[in-house]
Predict the structure.
Amino acid sequence: MRRTSDLTLPRMKVLPTKRGFVAALGLSQLVSWGTLYYSFPLIAETMVNDMGWSRGDIYGAATLGLLAAVLAAYPIGAMIDHGHGRKLMGGATIAASLALVVWSYIETMPALYAVIITLGMLQSALSYEPAFAVTVRQLGVLQSRSAITAITLWAGFSSTLFVPLLQFMLDSLGWRDALLGLAAINTVIAAPLYLWAIRPVNLTSEKTHPISSTRKSRIRPILCSPRFYLLTASFCAYMALFSGFTYHIYPLLIALTWDTQSVVLAIALIGPAQVAARMLILLFKEITIVRLGLLAGMTFPLAIVLLKAPPSIFTLAIVCTLYGAANGIFTIVRGMAVPELLSHHNYGKINGIMLIPMSLARAAAPWLIAIYWAHSETPDGAINLMLAIAILIPVLFGIAVNVKRIR
């Protein structure tokens, strides 16, 4: 094995243990999701009031940003398969911080679109998918389930911490200075952790290098499997619901009840619910991915249906708790579906191919829900659309796991 010079890993001679890797990647994911994803709905609502722009125009920028991320899905997966996760995630974090700073100075709609599109592409390198791919590559398939679960435990606190924090920053500083604060948090915490936790390409075990032609040839049978397409369709429905719920839950609950404090409190419960569900997964390791997927999938429609109940702090709390628990479990299912239900090899590439339609669904959902909401002129229109999407998740997943797997 070749010796590693200080130029390869500057001033970072001590490599993390498995626990250190999981903790560092989990904390950096918590910050990435909080600063780049959960922050958007709150900032968007503030900009609607401050700039006088329509909600549809602002969410149109988010949709274009998520569409731009589609172009990066497969190349990102391939880069991680070849060991470049450290440069990718560390560099994307620094670039995202710069984009947040630029966002704080924008005055025109074209400038907003340029910044949001840039952030959308950078998010594709900092979301769960690249983090899962890095984990599988660095730790191997056998240790990945517990590691991925633990990483999402950390990241599950993102909305709990950042929604109240950002609301406080918006109230006391305004949206422009709040963006500068998010950029500082992202740069000081997330970037160094990514660079420390993820091994450089020449320090990764040769056993994990996906270079052999034998492994490459195994992608084609996967792409011919009905299970691959049915799982992808289920995950597309999940991504559409996740994106639509994340971007619209704040304005939707505000439209149902004008009690801002109750809304923020209810949304803050999503994180603890995710964490509690993932802790149960750690306690009951014998539960299969199939059962977890069906359980979580059936919980999504139940949570959305409760939005039709008379609004109160109690019903809003139940909605967010059920959604958070289901999302916490299904995130693990999505992360382990490729190695456990499709193939142990070429995780990044297979996941990258699946991410193309998934990213399209994630990009289209916020805009479509916003348009349908405006067309129906009532929050019930948005709720009905999300309910239809939620029902597709367990139906498609159930069909997929009952289709014969290609070996």
Remarks:
- The chain has one domain: 18-206+217-401.
